[in-house]
């Protein structure tokens, strides 16, 4: 197996073809790991203050890397979404810019089949219906 600069190669158990993991997928997984570290109890969180600066550094890195596919864009927007906990899935408290970005995120994950990138509260909401009322 080879390692590529934009991801790693591995063999799928069902298929002998190498499957490439996107660097943006890896960035997203790292961000989620850092997010979990930040969700420690308040006492433990004081001891691990490195998660937020690490997330900031990761977001800056992601912003500096050009997307090569729709999936890369979905992972980039997923990082934006997961980093915006104050956004509620109904859109009632969003700024105009966040409203458009959130709509683009939802559309893109559905078009790419990457719904797993959504936060739990993004699934099964009446976001589009509520925007039309």
What is shown here, in short?
54% of the residues lie in helices and 8% in strands. By secondary structure, the protein is mostly helical. A hairpin with a 6-residue loop joins β2 (7-11) and β3.
- The topology string of helices and strands comes to EEEHHHHHH
Overall average pLDDT: 75
Q: How are strands sequenced across the largest beta sheet? A: 1-2-3
* Strand content bin: 5-15%
Oligomerization status of the protein chains: single chain
Rg of Cα set: 17 Å
Main β-sheet, in a few words?
A: 3 strands, antiparallel
Helix content class: 40-55%
Number of strands: 3
Number of helices: 6
Q: Which structural class do the helices and strands define?
A: mainly alpha
The 3D shape can be described as globular
Unreliable spans: 1-13, 15-19
Termini gap: 54 Å
Describe this structure in words.
With 133 residues, this protein is mainly α. It is built from 6 helices and 3 strands. Strands 1-2-3 form a 3-stranded antiparallel β-sheet, with no helix packed on it. It is globular, with a radius of gyration of 17 Å. Residues 1-13 and 15-19 have low confidence and may be disordered.
What's the helix and strand layout?
Layout: E1 3-4, E2 7-11, E3 18-20, H1 23-38, H2 42-47, H3 51-64, H4 70-82, H5 96-112, H6 127-132
Antiparallel strand pairs: 1-2, 2-3
What descriptive keywords fit this protein?
three-stranded antiparallel β-sheet, 6 helices, disordered N terminus, mainly alpha, 133 residues, 8% strand
